[in-house]
Amino acid sequence: MAEQTINPHEGERMMNESKISNTSPEIVPRAYLVSFILITLCFPLWGFANDITNPLVKAFSKVLQMTAAEGTWVQVAFYGGYGAMAIPAAIFIKKYTYKAGLMFGLAFYALGSFLFVPAADAQSFTPFLLAFFVMTCGLSFLETSANPYILSMGPAETATRRLNLAQAFNPVGSLLGMFVATQFIIQKLNPATGEERRNLAADGSLSALEQLSVITANDLEVIRDPYLVIGAVVFIMLLIVAFKNMPTTEEKSQDLDITGTFKRLSANQNYREGVIAQMFYVGAQIMCWTFIIHYGTEVFVQQGMTEQASEAKSQMLNIYAMVIFCLSRFVCTFLLKYINPSKLLMRLAAGGMVFTLATIFLSGVAGIYALVGISACMSLMFPTIYGIALSGTGDDAKLGAAGLIMAIVGGTFLPMAQASIIDMKMVFDGFSATKASFVLPLICFVVIAIYGRRSQKHLPQ
């Protein structure tokens, strides 16, 4: 774990030198370039984990004959790991180094992936939930380390742009995760519908139960296999990080002063509101990407397609949404050179509100296209809220990062609430339960827009 030591105030010195020479500060100074690239390669890893998981809500619901709300426990276990481990991760990183946090996170990520083997063998939902939870305990360490590490790799003036640049590669992993979910999980699941599986279970005869057991076992193995591959990839990344000399941009702190740090962060209005905005953003993202399958399936089945074909087509639209998200991330990173991050955040949140209203009120495929379009507006939000909220927090950013990672728990209770609305299977004043459920993402974008407006006073105009 040898590390190259660089003065923790190097970024500030670089910014001051750039002002003296009247040149624009570099986004990534040469001294950090190799390490920046290596850490940036970790961003697609958690993007993959996030977006191979979202379609599994629908998959587990069918394979194990559960309701949408019961299937959403996948999201509760997955994003709950972020909430449980974010503060321990931040304390660990504050006492040791960002590199140590990265290694710890990669190790738990790999372990959680490999736990899919006994989970599939058990043919039970609970072991899968444990595997998801262990995996995201690792992701919590990984993100709590990588995001502030990237922010610290250069001048403070370009920190938000630097994080947006690194985060721009996160959707690459997300796209791969969605592709794998579509081609290697959803398409390979047994075509028996959820109702047909429930009928076999209700039959109760030995032959029916044996048939259902074989179908379930094969489907759970289909779900398991991609996680074994990503576990091996993560383990290789762990070895690379372990043996690479990396810069230390922070001073090790034996005196953690956790109480003082939390007091300062709690008194920081910009940070406080940033954590709330981040929680609602993550909730909106997970809801829009998870329930696009439910939304699309409902529309395409009404048009005469089979349930499996409808699910596959809906997941393909989810991939298109991620392509738009990825391209928009690069565009927005460029725009940040000219537009105040808070102003751009507010405008994109307003765009998200418009697209969400269209998702609710437009019928047929037009509503689905509007739901896909929301991704263009979401692309900037996570790293920008992150960067704005941590601006001016200094060394408190290590624990401050934990609060912003804990905010990912918005991906637990908000999707669960939306699933509960969908499970009602009622019509609300002419709107299906699925359409009506998207009022929750709409509320989320309102909260984000308010934060974008209120946070403008904390950043240079």
Question: Can you characterise this structure?
Answer:
The structure is a single chain. Helices cover 76% and strands 2% of the residues. It has one domain (3-11, 29-248, 258-456): Growth Hormone, Chain: A (Up-down Bundle). The longest helix has 38 residues, at 206-243. Mean pLDDT is 86; it is low at 1-12 and 17-22. It has 24 helices and four strands. The strands form two sheets. The protein has a two-stranded parallel ribbon with strand order 1-2. It has a two-stranded antiparallel sheet with strand order 3-4.
In angstroms, what separates the terminal alpha carbons?
41 Å
Major sheet: arrangement of strands:
1-2
Overall, the morphology is: globular
Count of folded domains: 1
Order of helices and strands: EHHHHHHHHHHHHHEHHHHHHHHHEEHH
How is this structure best summarized?
This protein has about 450 residues and is mainly α. It is built from 24 helices and four strands.
Sequence-ordered SSE layout with sheet pairings:
Elements: E1 3-5, H1 10-20, H2 33-40, H3 43-53, H4 56-63, H5 68-71, H6 73-95, H7 98-114, H8 116-122, H9 125-152, H10 159-167, H11 170-185, H12 194-203, H13 206-243, E2 246-248, H14 258-266, H15 269-290, H16 292-302, H17 307-335, H18 341-361, H19 365-378, H20 381-390, H21 397-406, H22 410-423, E3 427-428, E4 431-432, H23 433-436, H24 439-454
Parallel strand pairs: 1-2
Antiparallel strand pairs: 3-4
Helix pairs in contact: 3-11, 6-7, 6-9, 6-21, 6-22, 7-9, 7-13, 8-9, 8-13, 9-10, 9-21, 10-17, 10-20, 11-13, 11-17, 12-13, 15-20, 15-21, 15-22, 15-24, 16-17, 16-19, 17-19, 18-19, 18-20, 18-24
